[in-house]
Design goal:
It contains 1 helix and 6 strands; from the N terminus they run αββββββ. With 79 residues, the chain is mainly beta. A hairpin with a 5-residue loop joins β3 and β4. The longest helix is centred in the first third of the chain and has 4 residues. The chain is globular.
């Protein structure tokens, strides 16, 4: 999955215009397709990913590690 200048034809105008705030509660996966949790918050520099309900873990992912959004999942550039 690479990032190109043109969005794929399958991405609608609505998906293309999502802001970081719109991605709260969306799923986050690593480049090797491991689900690490859902976006809990977004700051200027980090995406806060929450994993778990009883034993909760928070991961602070630098915004620069985000590879792309496919309409359902935020993909990261980390294995």
């Amino acid at each position: 999955m690479g990032i190109s200048d043109k969005p794929p034809a399958s991405i609608t105008k609505e998906q293309e215009e999502k802001s970081w705030i719109d991605l709260i509660n969306e799923s986050v996966h690593t480049s090797d397709d491991v689900d690490i949790g859902d976006i809990d918050a977004v700051s200027r520099d980090f995406i806060v990913v929450k994993r778990g309900f009883v034993d909760v873990h928070y991961y602070y992912i630098p915004i620069g590690k985000a590879e792309g959004w496919d309409g359902n999942v935020l993909w990261l550039k980390v294995p």
